[in-house]
Amino acid sequence: GRGTVYALGARGGSPTLRNLLRDEQRFLPLYEVDLKVAALSAVEETEEHLLWISLHLDVIEPHLVPGVTAVGPGGASLAALRHALEVIPGKRVIGFEIVGYPSLKENRNSLLALTGAELLRDNILTWWGLDEKKGGW
Fold first, then answer.
1. What is the rounded CA–CA span in Å between residue 107 and residue 25?
2. Mean pLDDT value of segment 18-41
3. 127: Cβ–Cβ under 8 A, 6 or more apart, which residues?
4. CB within 8 A of 7, min separation 6: which ones?
5. Are 34 and 83 in contact (CB under 8 A)?
6. Distance of alpha carbon 59 from alpha carbon 30, whole angstroms
7. What are phi and psi of 11, to 5 degrees?
8. Mind listing the pLDDT tens digit for each residue in 32-68?
9. Angle at 41 between CA 113 and CA 23, to 5 degrees
10. pLDDT at position 100, please?
11. Average pLDDT rounded to a whole number, residues 97-115
């Protein structure tokens, strides 16, 4: 529904999606807003709703993720992306996906795979890490 999708740091997307989200002030390109501030704003606006995070690798600086499916100029550093993801309360995250990874036929770049794996690992540990009180995950 309206007001439930945010595109933070997007440099692409279909014209229809961009227009819809811009009308709702939910399309926030990197050159217009700090990624961490945008993420914090989205978290606050969604109150206590559960969150599904979809991270498209093309939001990252191209030299860090060579071979992503939609390359554009600019991009976030890994540090900026990590800081933005840190403000998202883990108890509200019900899913996290990383998209934009090309098929093996298109790209066998290990840097891209390592970057995606590192982000996935870091956020799994941050949002759903070990609960010492319960003795498990």
1. 35
2. 72
3. 88, 90, 93, 96
4. 13, 17, 18, 21, 26, 27, 28
5. no
6. 8
7. -120, 0
8. 678 888 888 888 888 888 888 888 887 888 777 777 7
9. 95
10. 77
11. 73
